[in-house]
Amino acid sequence: MSERRAALVTGSTSGIGLGVATALAKAGMDVTLNGLGDAAEIERIRAGLEQEAGVTVRYDGANLMQADACAGLIEAAIGAFGRLDVLVNNAGIQHVAPIEDFPVEKWNAILALNLSSSFHTIRAAMGHMKERKFGRIINVASAHAHVASPFKSAYVAAKHGLYGLTKTVALEGAQFNVRCNAICPGYVHTPLVENQIPDTMKARGMSRDQVIQDVLLAAQPTKEFVKVEDIAGLALFLTTPAANQINGAALNIDGGWTAQ
Ligand code: NAD
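A: This is the predicted complex of the input protein with nicotinamide-adenine-dinucleotide.
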């Protein structure tokens, strides 16, 4: 039997990460899930996906705020499946506040998870991928890797940084058949977006509907949220042979937001 590909998706107990992990599993890859949350609910997701996709799905609850935990996550995934072909750095958090009130600990946490954790996972995976002459690294960045919004200093800084990291890794892996790209979504209605609505209401003195229409979807010309499945489809495409020459790219999937 030919070996199945093995994938790891960080922050895949919810939202975009879970959608990407589901698409990769359904395409026949063994998958490591990662993320925080209720243990029973995560086990339900893991077992359900394993059964539905007919692949092996494991879960690793590494908290990616710590460098050692990021490296440990990669080592355990390689140990479990004997290989790591696809690494999707997706875990991320948000905090919305004017910079003069932005809590320092929130800045540190967002930089640690949304930027540094990808450095640490890639650092731990790169040698293995280069040696095997195969690797597909996908960093889930954001339209905020290109443009800013007020009150999101840490998130915008981290996502711009993640695109820089993506380009650097793309160059380092280029001759080893290791590809690294960023996916840059506009607004997707996931818990991460839902959770920032109250803070944005407070920061801007707006109602919930005003925040959705006038802030979240204001810059998104389609006036529709991007779907988790749209992002999952793009991530899956980046693992196929048709995408072999896509390297160091930031693929916008934002309804035209950054075309403006
Ligand atoms: P989400 O809140 O639904 O999921 C975040 C995931 O990260 C969860 O699985 C959570 O458990 C995990 N996580 C949080 N802290 C963690 C930690 N310390 N260690 C390990 N895992 C941790 O969010 P989402 O909207 O699906 O966002 C996923 C990614 O997509 C993020 O990087 C986000 O910045 C990016 N993104 C989201 C949107 C959007 O509109 N939702 C837009 C652009 C980019």
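The first helix runs from residue 15 to 26. The longest strand covers residues 178-185.
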